[in-house]
Design a protein that fits this description.
With 408 residues, the chain is α/β, with parallel strands linked by helices. It has 14 helices and 14 strands. Helices cover 41% and strands 13% of the residues. It starts with a strand and ends with a strand. Bound molecules: ligand SAJ.
């Protein structure tokens, strides 16, 4: 039996996938409301294929509980935020979960940390949490790290098909954890040591952050000298060894905008490109604000309350707003004493999360003259014709430029 601890964006699909492939699973979360929702037969976020997977897992007998279960295998997938000032990881959720598991687990149990952690976190925080109970790692408790790689928007598919990494102190433990993941994972599973697994995960996300930063920097350069960045990227990408990503309003999500900071925090003075990339990407919402200001001036729009941000989530076709460029931009506006006036609408966000938020496209469009496209949602792609008559700043290059359409 496996106890999956933490039923968020990663823990829930992982628990469901294991259960749907014949593993006996209990999913544990300290959030009572979340556990009750799952026990009422409802998933807690939207994701392609998640509801179908949930049904299969329920049929296979998955259980959800606030309690930790006594068993020999745990998968811990709890949040790992970072301290905004020091940029260092806050491992407190991981260590709290480990301590709770230690309260109930039998001798010889294996703890798989799935949460993304900065390199060295398991040595610095997890091992001491075990040892301070008088337990020996490698004898009383076995440790492994199996960082996730799935992308929101295509999680269920990627969970099954991506290759993955398992880090463990002991080869035999690594192989045991590999067999567990191989129950559903069709990709190659590499077994390595824990520090290598920790570092690899953070490196993967940092690679993407740097590459997005390059695209964003090109957008700024091209804007400063009236060149078309999208045409330049399109042509450059025809080179067999060039693959430039897409510029956008910023980098959000709980992964790419966070993990590189772990390296900056831990290796100050060494992590230079990484820091520059972070600054470029974090500066994009402010750059968009500058574009809004320019366009307002050019089009004679004088009132910020006639500007509408279309898209609140951190990227297309997900309902996840964590660190989203739109939220970053709203914060930035507040710092410039212009907060609370711009209008906001996102078809994926029903809850009231920001000021002047709309819940229908018609009402939103009625109240704005300048629409700023902040996410590449399918709905926004399809609604191009409804934006006729509006000035549009399209930060995602959805609509062809010209007429009333401006780009980054
Ligand atoms: N973005 C751009 N331009 C691009 C691609 C993305 O501006 O060309 C923006 C997105 O709009 C978004 C942010 O970057 O705001 C991140 O989006 P994403 O789709 O690149 O990645 P995430 O954060 O959803 O998921 C990433 C993935 N990591 C990599 O691709 C290396 C995923 O595989 C990881 O599992 C996930 O982080 C994680 O949890 O670590």
């Amino acid at each position: 039996m496996v106890n999956v601890v933490g039923l968020g964006y990663i823990g829930l699909p992982t628990a469901l996938m294991l259960a749907a492939h014949g593993v006996e699973v209990t999913g544990t979360d300290y959030n009572r409301e979340l556990v009750e929702t799952l026990n009422r037969g409802k998933t807690t976020f939207k994701e392609d294929g998640l509801d179908e997977l949930f049904e299969k897992a329920v049929k296979s007998g998955i259980r959800f509980s606030e309690e930790y279960i006594s068993t020999d295998m745990y998968i811990i997938s709890v949040p790992t935020p970072y301290d905004k000032a020091s940029k260092k990881i806050d491992a407190s959720y991981v260590t709290a979960a480990v301590k709770n598991v230690l309260e109930v687990c039998p001798n010889g149990a294996t703890l798989v940390i799935e949460s993304t952690v900065s390199p060295g976190t398991i040595d610095r925080f997890v091992r001491p949490a075990i040892e301070e109970r008088g337990l020996a790692v490698g004898k009383d408790i076995h440790l492994a790290h199996a960082p996730e790689r799935i992308i929101p928007g295509n999680m269920v598919y990627e969970l099954k098909h991506n290759s993955r990494t398992i880090g463990a102190d002991e080869r035999e433990v690594g192989e045991r954890v590999k067999r567990l993941y191989a129950s559903f994972c069709e990709g190659e599973i590499v077994v390595t040591d824990i520090r290598t697994a920790e570092m690899t995960k953070v490196v993967e996300n940092t690679f993407r952050d740097i590459n997005i930063a390059f695209a964003n920097e090109l957008a700024k350069i091209c804007r400063s000298d009236s060149m078309d960045v999208y045409e330049i990227i399109r042509i450059a990408n025809m080179h067999p060894r060039v693959n430039i990503l897409s510029p956008g309003p910023g980098v959000g999500g709980h992964c790419i905008s966070v993990d590189p900071w772990f390296l900056v925090g831990d290796y100050p003075g060494l992590a230079n490109i990484i820091l520059a990339a972070r600054k470029i990407n974090d500066g994009m919402p402010e750059f968009v604000l500058g574009r809004i200001y320019e366009i307002m001036k050019k089009e004679g729009i004088t009132d910020v309350s006639r500007v509408g941000l279309y898209g609140l989530t951190y990227k297309e076709d997900v309902d996840d707003m964590r660190e989203s460029p739109t939220l970053q931009m709203l914060e930035c506006m507040e710092r410039h004493l212009a907060g609370g006036r711009v209008k906001v609408y996102d078809p994926y966000i029903e809850a009231e999360v920001v000021a002047n938020q709309y819940h229908g496209l018609d009402a939103f469009l009625e109240d704005v003259d300048l629409v700023v496209v902040m996410a590449g949602h399918e709905e926004i792609r399809k609604n191009g014709n409804r934006l006729k008559g509006k000035i549009v700043l399209d930060t995602k290059n959805i609509y062809a430029k010209g007429g009333n359409i401006y780009h980054l």
